[in-house]
Amino acid sequence: MWLIPEVGEGDPPVITFRADSDSFIVKGLLAIILMTYSGKTADEINRTDIEDIFTRLGLEQNLSPNRRSGFYATVERIKELARAAHP
């Protein structure tokens, strides 16, 4: 899996993310993450509750603990990149 942030110009800047994976399941999870976080400001990214979205979609019961862990690790990485882009 790879994840690339692109910080736009503006005040505050909007951050767009590109990501991909060889795994179809991970691609699907990345699509959810990108729809949730890409094109937002750092503040919007850090205020977004992905856990609520994850639960409403019913993913909690359909993913293995490893996939769930990877999902949340990717979200945390996005939040770190957002903080670094606009402290």
Can you characterise this structure?
The mean pLDDT is 91. The termini are far apart. The chain is built from four helices and three strands, in the order ββαβααα. It is globular. It is an alpha+beta fold and 87 residues long. Helix content is 55%, strand content 17%.
Distance between the termini: 26 Å
User: Approximately how much helix is present in the residues?
Assistant: 55-70%
Query: Could you describe the largest sheet, including whether it forms a barrel?
Result: 3 strands, antiparallel
Mean pLDDT: 91
Which assembly state applies to the chains in this document?
A: single chain
Label the overall shape.
Answer: globular
By DSSP (H or I, 4+ residues per run), the number of helices equals 4
Low-confidence stretches: none
Rg over CA atoms: 13 Å
Number of strands: 3
Strand line-up in the sheet with most strands:
1-2-3
In what range is the share of β-strand residues? 15-25%
Class derived from helix and strand content: alpha+beta
Query: Helix and strand succession?
Result: EEHEHHH
